[in-house]
Design a protein that fits this description.
Chain lengths: ~130, ~280
Amino acid sequence: MSQQPEKMEEDQLELTLGQPLSDFLMQLEDYHPTIPDAVTGNILRSSGFEPKDPRLLRLISIAAQKFISDIANDALHHCRARTNNSSSSSSKSNKGTKDRRYCLTMEDLTPALAELGITIRKPQYYV
Amino acid sequence: MTTSSIDQQTNVYRKMLSAAICSICLGNGFDTIEKDALATLVELLQCFLSQLSLLSRNYCELAGRSEPLVADILLGFIDMGIDFSSFDDYIKSAKYPHLPPIIVQQPPKQPNMLTTGVKQTLPQYIPSYLPEFPVPHAYIRTPTHRQPIIDYESALTKFLAKTAPSTHKLFDTEDINTFPLIACQPNYPPYLSSLLPQDQIFDPEELEYDAKVETETVEHKKPGERRTEDVKIEKIEEEEQIQDIKTEENHSPNNFIDNPYLAAIKFSNSEEMDIS
């Protein structure tokens, strides 16, 4: 009996979560994700999923974009940490850290993906 | 659709995906990306999209619908462990350059066929819904090669005028080259040239035409403008030969060629000037 109010609170929370979502969908009308709608639509269609509302397409595009963006962000942190470590250990005179150019390498991508539970192995050979 | 064209299409979509990934990485602060890393991310992105669409479709079909709703996609997000509450902030904060929209390439237009001749109408006993006759050259013989222009004469006369052992001058000037006149040199047996066979006769029709034109021009000329005796003899020879051929080929009177590529040769007046 004592758990009932908690359940009610959860329901309330979900209701309030649902409200911004519809607002969010309205925002998607005039937001263009980096991945073009046509590309997302084609990949979805090849999986048998064909939403007619372009907003749903954009929702999925944004999810994918955020997925890649999070990975890239993680990889950037790894890259910075690695370069800082190497530069501090090798020479302290090099202080041009601000205008250093970053390259996304497999070395940084592998630990970033490992955090998401994706393990990357080097292919045994290239075709 | 062939397999190669399917490959090409997927390649285009993968190229767009890699472009999108590059723009995301640029927006995040990277300057360059390794080829392997880009390929991995493209694979990941494509896998993510297809996995999400599979899950969403399953939820959609579980609910007995064929049209997906937002709820199906959200359930797909939850299944994949994606937190969609942060999307709102994400789209406000992230500003990535837009990719150019995909433009469907128009197939190249087939050039129109050059029409020759008049199309035959269907006979009465063939119903009108049957296809029309094709262009006549498709089933009636059309000459496809052009007769070589045998225009040796003017060149030959020029050459003779320059190299002949004896040339006269038309005017009493020092300059020999302006109006040279070839002196007449009769051959030793005068009938010999008529006995020798002539080469390069490709089509009797063409030769006939040539001869007709030339005889006309010869008639128009004044006797004073006549060329050497040799040329005259040649003319007579040609005519004789043509008459022989004519008697052989008299049964095929259709010598009009309706082909714009094989139009009759136009003789300019300058040619006559050269000869005289």
